[in-house]
Specification:
single chain, about 240 residues, alpha/beta, TIM Barrel, eight-stranded parallel β-sheet, two-stranded antiparallel ribbon, 10 strands, about 45% helix, globular, binds zinc ion
């Protein structure tokens, strides 16, 4: 039984080669997300010989507006990987023009993925979960993982109905709002992520190597057994890949 990390920014890690070695040694299945299509190849090359890490083609919503010229490169690379992310929408401090552009690009990406049925998408939805769920819709042909979901429980229910999965990270298992979300996710839809290097634990930056702490916290939230939840997340991931 292995640990699962469905959202890790390998290319933003200080020393990618050494963390790759650790991931391989510890046999942690890891999706290495990227933030723009132009850096995808870097991660693709880094992980080419890896047994446990898969490169994902991404276009982070906070970079879409500045880098919109890279969109054709996204579509060119779509056939090169089963994994897509980080993509999505971010309705933070951005201007309306920015949000409009994000939406246009996200709709195009979802549309392009609709021509496939074997993709696994890891999706950012800060402040935008309703639009994200609307755009993907109820009859999408690929697997969807909502990463670090922080939206309403009502919309969470809709995402569950649509068949989406949820990847949970360390800060979510610690915050009260995160715990509320976790308790509302059906257990057969839960996955784990580190979102390293953007997350921290006891002042250490999270990586796939800290997924064991996420599992420990999850089992405390669910008042269950550590190895049961380690197995459950592994089984959920296997099911997602079918
Ligand atoms: Zn991320």
């Amino acid at each position: 039984m292995h640990f699962i990390d469905t959202h890790f920014h390998l290319d933003l890690w200080d020393d990618p080669k050494s963390i790759i070695e650790e991931i391989e040694k510890n046999k942690i299945y890891t999706i290495a997300v990227t933030n723009t299509p132009s850096v995808f190849f870097h991660t693709y090359n880094l992980t080419e010989k890896s047994k446990y890490i898969r490169p994902a083609l991404g276009f982070h919503p906070e970079l879409v507006y500045q880098r919109k010229s890279e969109l054709p490169l996204f579509f060119e690379n779509l056939k090169k990987t089963k994994y897509i992310g980080e993509i999505g929408l971010d309705y933070g401090k951005q201007s309306n023009e920015d949000k409009k552009e994000q939406k246009r690009v996200f709709e195009k990406i979802i549309d392009a993925c609709s021509n496939h049925n074997d993709k696994v998408l890891t999706i950012h939805s800060r402040g935008s979960y309703k639009d994200v769920i609307d755009i993907i819709g109820n009859d999408f042909s690929n697997k969807v993982i909502l990463h670090w979901y922080s939206g309403s429980l009502k919309e969470l229910e809709r995402a569950v109905e649509y068949g989406f999965y949820f990847s949970v990270n360390l800060p979510m298992t610690i915050s009260l709002s995160g715990q509320k979300v976790i308790k509302s996710i059906p257990q057969q839809r839960i996955l784990t992520e580190s979102d390293g290097p953007f997350t921290k634990f006891n002042n250490n930056i999270c990586s796939p190597l800290s997924i064991n702490v996420v599992i420990k916290n999850l089992s405390n939230i669910y008042l269950g057994d550590y190895s049961f939840y380690k197995q459950l997340v592994y089984d959920n991931f296997r099911k997602l890949l079918l």
